[in-house]
Amino acid sequence: MLLAGLNAVVKSFLQEKKETYLYYYTLFDPIDLIVAKLVYNFVFLCSLFLIILGILSVFSGFPVKDFSLFFSGSALGIFGISVVFTFVSVISSADGGNGTLMSILALPLVLPIVLLLLKISQVSVRLLVDTSVIEDVWLLAGLDCILLGAMLLLFPALWRS
Predict the structure, then answer these.
(1) What is the DSSP letter of 128?
(2) Which residues does 104 contact at the CB level (< 8 Å), separation at least 6?
(3) What is the C-alpha separation between 118 and 115, in angstroms, rounded?
(4) Which of 97, 119, 144, 146: CA 20 to 30 A from 105?
(5) CA dihedral in degrees (76, 78, 82, 85; nearest 10)?
């Protein structure tokens, strides 16, 4: 899902031309634009997650035992991944639209999210017994808030350039 999401979200900023950016610059506030792209990417990754989960459950059953933990962790993880990919696509499009740069920049930012998601999903499937998994969920939520705050603070400066 991570690589499919990367390929899909990379198109949100990289496929637009400079003239389109100038048009957006006259119409929208930068925060409104980045939030709209973030919501679109979040909805897209959620639908991709549900499709993959449906196919997985058809072929191998649905092994999740703790549904609330699984879906809350998945929602937070998908939100974090969409924030990272949206912001990194903004940075790489400001550099000239290099998709390889996006892949390189996104890896260190996505890695903590993926590691937390692995632990939360292992506990929800009961492959791992951990009593502090709620702290991991809160850590994931805090990481998402930090990434969102950084994106909202830095995007207007990137938008002007």
Answers:
(1) S
(2) none
(3) 5
(4) 119
(5) 110
Pairwise CA distance, residues 9 & 7, whole Å: 6
The domain containing residue 101 runs over which residues?
2-160
CA 60 to chain centre: 26
Q: What is the pLDDT of residues 27-57, one digit of tens each?
A: 888 898 889 889 998 999 999 899 989 998 9
pLDDT in tens, 90-144: 887 776 666 677 778 888 889 999 999 999 999 998 888 878 899 999 999 999 9
DSSP state of 96: T
Q: How far apart are the first and last CA of the chain?
A: 32
**Domain count across the chain:** 1
User: Looking at the whole model, is its pTM more than 0.85?
Assistant: yes
Residue 99 is encoded by which pair of tokens? 């998709």
What are the DSSP calls for 14-29, one per residue? Answer: HTS-HHHHHHHHHHS-
Residue 150, CA atoms < 13 Å, CB-side half-sphere: 15
